[in-house]
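Checklist before submission:
- one chain only
- standard amino acids only
- sequence pasted in full

Submission:
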Amino acid sequence: MQKIDLPERPDWREHAQEVGFTFADMHGEPYWDETSAYAFSLEQIETDIEDPATALHGMCREAVAHILQSEELLDRLAIPEAHRDLVAESWNRGDPEIYGRFDFAYDGNGPAKLLEYNADTPTSLYESAAFQWRWLEDQLAAGVLPEGSDQFNGIHEALVARFAEAFEPNSDLHFTAVSGNPEDYATVESMAWAAREAGLGAHYSDLEKIAISEDGQFLDDEDRVIGVLFKLYPWEDLLREDYANHIAGARCLFLEPAWKALLSNKGLLPVLWQMFEGHPNLLPAFFEDDIRDAIAGRGPAAAPVADAFERAEAQLIAGHVSKPILSREGASVSIIKAGSVIEQATNTAYAEHPRILQAYQPLPQFDGFRPVIGAWIVGDTCAGIGIREDRSRITQDLSRFKPHYITA
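Returned file contents:
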């Protein structure tokens, strides 16, 4: 894995405007940055990222079944009691999932380490699936990249195949996001584009314009009944709003399904460590309250947690990350080394939530920037990657997106 300086395409900004990539620059800073790119070997991609991501997704599905058998874990993940049946029923029915994104720390050597799973509403899909692929084609044509260079990017094709697998031809799907957010709209339109290629109908409606009919069904902004709804809106928020009371009777299939609320929650990380302790792609992780209780010897679970904590104690003392179970874009995250906070997010919007502690895995540094590998899962397999980098140790909403290629 290397970071290679490369010339920019002379007309890439004009092309970005033409295709609606209006957030390629944000707040006076580049979001899309092609002044350099990350280069990987095929073995690094296949052995260290693709195969482990696919395996981790299978482990996450095992974790869903495990969590649903435990009221204690549902409490720990703060799943509202009134809607636990909704979550469980979506799993038991086999409501289909479409996509998700693992975030990995990886430096080109040894196993990638899972930082978190953005399983419900991951963004940067358009940049990953489409714009960086156009970058590869253009730079190959210009002779900037060596002949035979490739990219780990079958995301769009995998989405088309997944929609075709999950729905009958000519099925009507609706797509929604909060209005006025170009990045969210780009993600939703990327999904709708794939659905149309799969032979499905795809209709967009702003989230705020969705209504409820007299018989309890959801309606779009043209009063059409919504039978399938892809919503770029997190379950942790939706389950705490009045609209959630209408979901069970609305006869509407949600994408992502309600059971994804269990995987987009950072409480998943200690559950995975409990189930698969020592797995090479996992970092030790614990519920903060569990560690306190274990140290104090309180509760029936104190002994096993204390034993697991003892096995990971040296690693956690050397460095750990404190994360709220519900958080986005690095908000309310702190990094502690040897008892001192070395970095914390300025955005504290999620500070009120219970926390987990996860062993600290430093991100590699390239020219002062720290990349995070986003491994995209479509259906049940890894289909490509996107890379975000930041000078900060905590990847945030304005962190830069970098293209990548596989060396010939």
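Reviewer check: The chain has twelve helices and 21 strands.
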